[in-house]
Structures are given as C-alpha cells and as structure tokens.
Task: inverse folding
C-alpha cells in the first residue's frame, strides 16, 4: 500500500499541496502564492505555465525534498474552473487562460449562443443557462476575437487537465468540468454534444471524458525531472476545486450542502436526481451517479482583501476584532457585495458594490462588518433560490479560509438561518484531491470518512432578528440602485 498520496489545488490567489496518508491523516501542507492578471475591466486571466505548472513543480519539489518521492503512491490535481485555456499542436498554451465567471468578456457570446440554441434547450440538456461562468462562450470569444490564435488551437484545457497533460501526456477532462463547459456537454447522456461543439468550437478535438478518481496515466520522465516526483507515479484525473473540496468534507449525499468561504463564495448542494434552475448551475457531481446544484457569488473573500489593502494592510485578526465589537446591523450601515459583478442568484457582470448609510460615526470596524454581512445576505439570497428549486439542506458544511475564527461564519448562520458544520481539517480542495488519489489506486474507498467531527455554528436569535429586518432592505437597495450601478460600470 502507498505510504502517502499527494493532492494539489490551483486556486485564484495561491496553490496548495497536501500530503496525506491513505487513511486521511495530513502529513504536510505547502502553499505558494501567485498573481492573477486583470489586463482590462472584466478580464481575469492566469498564465498556465508561469502559474499552474510552475506552482505544481514548486510544491512537488518542496515535498519531495522532505519525503522520498518513492513514498508518494499517487497524485491528483484540482483547480479553479471552469477556465478556457487553448493550446497549439505541441500542447503549449497560445494565450493566458480565461478564468471562470469573474471574467465577463464573453457575455455577448453567451447571449448569442443562447439565442441560437435556445435558452430552455441549453438548460434542459446542460443543466445551466449560458453566462459568464460557462466555458463554451469563452472559447467562442477566442475564436471570434483572436482568429490567429484559434487557427493554431488544437487543445482545450482547464487548470487540472492542463497539469494532468503536463504530468502524463494524456488529453482528458473529468465529466464534472466538462459539464461546466456549457453548451458542449449533455449531463443526462454523459457525453459531448458534437453538433453544438461544432457551432461553438468548430474543428476542435475535445478531450476524452473520465471521472476524477480515474487514472489518467503516470508521471513521465520529463515531468519527473521538473517536479521531483518519481517517474511512473499514477496520476488521477481530478476536477474543479469546489467539487474536490466537497469530497474533502464528505459532501456527496442528497441533502448535503457545502458553503465555501474563499475569494468567491461557492455553494454545492447534492441532489437525488438532476435538477435545473435558471439562476443556478446543475451539474453531474464528483462521482458517477451523483448530481449537484451549484451557485457562486463573484466576490466575498476578495472584498475583505480589498478592504485590508485599503486600510494599509491591517492584519485580518485586527479587522475581525474591530468588527466583532460592532453590533449586528453595523449601526445602520448596509452594503451590497457585487464588487466584481455577480454570478448567482442573478447573472449580472455590471452589478457593483454599494455602501449605504455611511455617517461620521462609522469606523473601519463598521465597514468591515457591513461587508461580511453583505456576503451573508448573498448566501441567504442564494439558499432561497436553492429552496425554490426544491433543494432542501439537511446538512450544511462550511469550508475555506474564511471559516477560521467564528465571526464570519456566525454572521452567515444568523443572516441565512442555517446551522453550519466546520470540519476539523480545513486545508481545502487539495485534501479532497489526496482522497481522489487514494481511491484511484485502491488505497481508500470513496465511502471512507476522512474528515468527521469539528464544531457547529448556529444562528444567534438576537442577531437573526436584526438580519431578518435588514434582508428586505438589502434586496431593495439593489433594486433601487441597479441602474446607477450599471451606468457607473459602463462608464
């Protein structure tokens, strides 16, 4: 049996590696930070070699300097998604990768494809309507706006599949990630839709489809030299980061819901059968036979980072302490969290953040708490849409860096009216990748519970009463200012 398994996750602001035993004990964690480019308003990109592959090489070398490469029995990689990376005949990227829904350049392509294919037909076959979140319109944008690049395009990658290609030479993509390449994948049939693929990406050979725990191949001699991993090490296919994180906390049964506190807030609800909702994303899950309904806010942790930088790099612990001294409702300060547009429960790339009720008595703690409360109202808004789709949450698990400390999770519980489980291991999607790797080589079962126990965060009745009063004002604030938001966003 393998001594260790290695999981690596490529995130928006950093990448992380987790070395674990096949039983789920975390042995080592390594993190590297990286940059994300925003070359124009609405454009968000990453360099696949300088960020994705470089991070994987750096993290692997760090760990193999501490542990023998031969002790690592398998590797699995997840990453941000859906992304659109195109590469030439030699597999080399032709341009930076276009990131997930925070990149809104392809809204026009999404609208045009929706009109051509039929929005209801796309929703029925793919599980989601086309939006800035969909990878298909991003490919169409490249084809229409960078024809020289498209003429040389032979491969389409997401973050995890590009690293798998570099590690093994295999051109594969997991079913879940493919499902987020709307309108290219039929989630009911579990296969590409060739007639739609020819409209979106004519002539492009799409990758072979696998499940995250399938083996894509093994580490090549060239990849071993770059990473320090042993040549021949098995490599699992992996998936998009949020679904790897769901695996890390055993969110894979109907009624399970995961709230991920990251740069963006993300939601995954497991359903007993395929569910489609026009404002949310219905997909296949991380295992065959599993179905999920998902949503994602465009800004959450990124707003707290923005405010930290705005206040001179003040430590998060200090900001949280100041916000904790402010009562629920932030002494009459109300915010909207749409700093980077919004993805769900409404798709609006031109939505913008708002601070209402400012007075001279408000300080940094008030503003910081109001921003946390804004994200909590966004959670409530999303969960209301899940309920409208008939998806009830019987178990809610909170994950991500924002779960450290109890202020943010407490605000969300009180504002959204949910009790959240915070598991003991919160190292993220890379931990789920390690489990995928263990399952892929038969060192663990998908039914094994790696991450049980933890703490529970329940609503505070007094705070909940305040938030019940403010939530309608939050919704009204958006409705009354949305035209102004759009006018300002468009200059």
Result:
């Amino acid at each position: 049996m393998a001594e260790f398994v290695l999981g690596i996750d490529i995130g928006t602001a950093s990448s992380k590696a987790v070395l674990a035993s096949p039983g789920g004990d975390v042995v080592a964690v390594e993190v590297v930070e990286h940059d994300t480019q925003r070359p124009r308003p609405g454009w968000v990109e990453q360099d696949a070699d300088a960020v994705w592959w470089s991070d994987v090489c750096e993290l692997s070398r760090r760990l193999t300097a501490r542990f023998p490469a031969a002790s690592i029995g398998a590797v699995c990689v997840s990453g941000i998604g859906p992304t659109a990376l195109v590469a030439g005949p030699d597999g080399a990227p032709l341009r930076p990768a276009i990131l997930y829904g925070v990149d809104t350049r392809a809204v026009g392509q999404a609208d045009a494809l929706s009109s051509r294919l039929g929005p209801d037909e796309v929703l029925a076959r793919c599980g989601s309507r086309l939006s800035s979140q969909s990878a298909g319109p991003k490919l169409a944008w490249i084809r229409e706006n960078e024809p020289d690049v498209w003429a040389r395009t032979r491969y389409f990658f997401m973050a995890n599949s590009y690293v798998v290609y570099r590690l093994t030479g295999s051109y594969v993509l997991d079913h879940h990630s493919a499902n987020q390449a709307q309108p290219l994948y039929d989630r009911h049939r579990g296969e590409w839709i060739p007639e739609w693929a020819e409209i979106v990406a004519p002539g492009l050979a799409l990758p072979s489809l696998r499940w995250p725990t399938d083996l894509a191949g093994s580490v090549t001699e060239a990849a071993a030299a770059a990473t320090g991993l042993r040549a021949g090490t098995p490599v699992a296919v992996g998936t998009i980061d949020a679904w790897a994180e769901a695996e890390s906390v055993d969110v894979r049964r109907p009624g399970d819901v995961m709230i991920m506190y990251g740069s963006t807030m993300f939601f995954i609800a497991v359903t007993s059968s395929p569910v489609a909702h026009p404002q949310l994303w219905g997909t296949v899950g991380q295992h065959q036979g599993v179905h999920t309904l998902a949503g994602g806010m465009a800004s959450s942790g990124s707003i707290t980072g923005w405010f930290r930088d705005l206040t001179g790099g003040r430590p998060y612990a200090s900001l949280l302490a100041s916000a904790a001294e402010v009562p629920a409702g932030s002494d009459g300060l109300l915010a909207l969290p749409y700093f980077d547009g919004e993805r769900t429960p409404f798709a609006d790339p031109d939505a913008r953040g708002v601070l209402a009720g400012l007075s001279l008595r408000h300080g940094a703690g008030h503003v910081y708490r109001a921003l946390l409360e804004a994200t909590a109202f966004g959670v409530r808004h999303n969960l209301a849409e899940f309920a409208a789709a008939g998806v009830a949450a019987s178990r809610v698990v909170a994950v991500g860096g924002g779960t450290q400390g109890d202020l943010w999770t407490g605000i969300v519980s009180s504002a959204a009216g949910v009790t959240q489980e915070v598991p003991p291991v919160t190292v993220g999607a890379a931990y789920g990748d390690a489990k995928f790797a263990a399952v892929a080589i038969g060192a663990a079962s998908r039914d094994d519970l790696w991450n049980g126990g933890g703490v529970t965060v329940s609503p505070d009745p007094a705070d909940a009463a305040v938030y019940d009063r403010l939530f309608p004002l939050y919704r009204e604030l958006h409705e009354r200012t949305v035209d102004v938001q759009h006018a300002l966003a468009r200059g």
